[in-house]
Specification:
This protein is α/β, with parallel strands linked by helices and 177 residues long. The protein has 8 helices and 5 strands, in the order βαβαααβαβααβα. It has a single domain (5-163), classed as Rossmann fold (3-Layer(aba) Sandwich). Helix 2 crosses helix 4 (54-71), helix 3 (45-51) packs across helix 4 and helix 6 (109-116) packs across helix 7 (129-147).
């Protein structure tokens, strides 16, 4: 079993919102690995970062992605930093090479900042959020590019257009006129 498609991208790129709509359009289930971690650990991601540290969280994330990639046959969204781990990138690259679709939802700093609202639930954006977001986008862009089979820009785009672009990325599908 493998996902219909996997969504990657930075925080506030729309992975959950777009992924839910794409899953609905496909009549498929939606799964978010961040939510899996919260359910399995009984703690929020922010709390895990504070009490256990980012390295611990990333270890949980690798396991969560591995499990979801083997168990889930719908639309799968990964946490924004999942691509920072080589094991996750290797899994995604292999999935893409075997015909899977990995969509990088790309977003500009201004759009991401507006969407994020600098929520306390985004631990890496807690201090100087615009600068952190800009740095994060710059550092992670090559990692998203490495694993993606398709790139869809979400900043400044109508939600419906983004969903249509993601659906069009699936083999055998085209965007309706």
């Amino acid at each position: 079993m493998t996902p219909l498609l996997v969504l990657v991208g930075p925080p506030a790129s729309g992975k959950t919102t777009v992924g839910t709509a794409v899953a609905r359009a496909l009549g498929a289930a939606f799964r978010d690995t961040d939510e899996d971690i919260v359910l399995q650990s009984g703690s929020s991601i922010a709390d895990i970062f504070v009490t256990e540290g980012e390295d611990h969280f990333r270890g949980l994330e690798v396991k969560s992605v591995e499990r979801a990639m083997s168990e889930h046959d719908g639309v799968l969204a990964l946490g924004g930093g999942a691509v920072t781990k080589e094991a996750t990138r290797e899994l995604l690259v292999g999935y893409g090479r075997s015909g899977g679709t990995v969509v990088w939802l790309d977003v500009d700093v201004a759009s991401a900042a507006k969407r994020a609202g600098f929520s306390r639930d985004r631990p890496l954006l807690a201090v100087n959020p615009r600068a952190m977001l800009r740095t994060m986008l710059e550092q992670r862009a090559p990692l998203y590019a490495e694993v993606a089979t398709v790139k869809v820009s979400t900043g400044g785009q109508a939600f419906e257009d983004v969903v249509a672009d993601v659906l069009a990325a699936l083999p055998g599908r085209t965007v309706a006129p």
